[in-house]
Amino acid sequence: MTFQVLDKIGGQFCNEEVLVRLLHFWEARNFKKGNVLMGVEVLLDSEGNSVQGFISPNRLFRHENNLHRSSVYKLKKFMVRPAKTLYRVSDHKHTIWFTDLTTMVPVLDGEPNIEAHKFRIRVFSDFAPIADTDFDLFDVVGQHRLISGDNLKSATATDTGTEVAENRSRDRVFLHLLMQDGESIRINLWEDIAAAFRERWNTSTVQPTVLLITTVNPKTIGGAVTLSSTSSTRLYFDANIAETQEFMTKYVSITLHLRL
């Protein structure tokens, strides 16, 4: 059984076993209510068909020690509900909800043919129409053109971007990214994601050139479309994965074309 079968059982309890790879998981918190934990969200993939899932706080103790990115599991006994309308990280029309009966058993033998990565890469013309809607959190890949932030070694410019309230700029890395359509876009990386970028940037003998940033939220800041990292954001650099490798072979020609 694959996730394609879920199209036929929406709103029902699924007692069938699904072979899945756990692509990613992250905490969902309500920052408007004291940063309270609402649950853990997961992104699962079965034969190239990814689905977003949700584990409520009262059920988290059953699974939290068993969650390992890129691991493969046999998933069974879960609810199938309509997909979220906000902060979507999957194109699937359904969402999986873990129940008290849900089992998630690691597959230790063999290597199922399920990809370890799945991205929804978009360009400027895709981000601009959905700015400030909080609907979809797409991915972006490109060549960095400007980077600034506190405690950054060899920042590429002194431009610090739009001011932010409550001195949050110290928790931010601000950059411009040249995308595959030749357009540049502003990006704010916040808190843990900014720290992860800062660590990679400062410890690299040769600073990364190409970045893939997942699940960014487009906002209009200072009149410009700006992408902001979210709690589900991941970072990939240069030759980490096929998508960044592919862009590395193209960005030189993009840069040369823009200079003509």
UniProtKB/TrEMBL annotation:
Source domain of life: Eukaryota
Pfam families: DUF223
TM regions (residue ranges): none
CDD domains cross-referenced by the UniProt entry: RPA1_DBD_A_like (cd04480)
Domain Replication protein A 70 kDa DNA-binding subunit B/D first OB fold: 12-105
Gene3D superfamilies linked to this entry: Nucleic acid-binding proteins
Name of the protein described by the UniProt record: Replication protein A 70 kDa DNA-binding subunit B/D first OB fold domain-containing protein
